[in-house]
Fold this sequence. Notes:
5 helices
Amino acid sequence: MNVNDVDNPIDVIIDNPSPSQHLLLSEHVRLAVEDYVSRLDGVEIANLYHMVINEVERPLLQTVLELCGHNQSRAAQMLGLSRSTLRKKLSGYGPM
């Protein structure tokens, strides 16, 4: 199907979402962890929990801050954290 053949291309995108858009966030995480572990080819894994949390937390905080216009109070509320906890976490990552 060519976009030029459609009256409203946005309708095609909405009516036909990609398969990955149907997955829950937890399913994306599960698939990413499975992929990561499979690529290690038998190498011993240690501290996987902390590694995953560290990999996910920074982009989570950064994205929520951007969505909230860098308003830390709103971002903390969206995350379900106190503002002081958010500030503490942000200080550990440096400038965002």
